[in-house]
Each structure stands twice: as C-alpha cells, then as structure tokens.
Design goal:
Elements lengths: L16 E5 L9 H10 L5 E6 L2 H10 L5 E4 L25
Parallel strand pairs: 1-2, 2-3
Length: 97
C-alpha cells in the first residue's frame, strides 16, 4: 500500500511546533504577552508566526528572537488561528505551515 504524502499531527500526539498569529494591527496590547509567551515555548519547538504584512514581520523579528519561521498572509483579520482552514503540511513541500 502506498503511503500518503500528507502528514497531519493528530490531537493526541505530541506536537513538534506551535503556530501563532502576531497580534499587531489587531490587538497591540497583546504584543508584550506574546513576547513573554514565546520565551517559555521550548526551544526545540518550531515557532511559526503568521503576520499580516512586511511591517508586522519586521516588528516581530525585532521582538521575538526564537521565531523560526513566519508566514505573511495579507488576509489576516484576527488572531484566532483556529478560524483558518486547515493548512496542510506535505512531507516533501510545505504548503502552509
């Protein structure tokens, strides 16, 4: 049987990373919380942060030192990441996170 190239992490498995939506332009008062929160995320986790634009990306990279990946999504309209459709991770090519 051929295995599928798509790999999803089930809720019951230990995740290898975390994705957050950068709050700038939505809730600026949460930026300090995000900075402190990112400090307690284990260093071996892949921290991916979704940003709305280049300005937000620059602010993010100046404030959160352990951000390993960012994704610019101009359509962002809030910080609630579960509102987004599933972003699929292909074993050979990232098509989202």
């Amino acid at each position: 049987m051929k295995s599928s190239p798509i790999s999803l992490t089930p809720d019951w498995e230990n995740p290898k990373g975390i994705a957050l939506v950068w709050p700038e332009t939505f809730y600026d008062d949460l930026i300090d919380f995000y900075i402190h929160f990112s400090d307690i995320i284990p260093k071996n986790f892949l921290l991916t942060i979704l940003v709305k634009d280049e300005n937000s990306k620059n602010t993010l990279l100046n404030k959160i030192l352990n951000c390993k990946k960012y994704v610019i999504i101009p359509e962002l309209s809030d910080i609630w990441i579960k509102d987004f459709p599933l972003l699929i991770r292909n074993k050979h090519h990232h098509t989202g996170l």
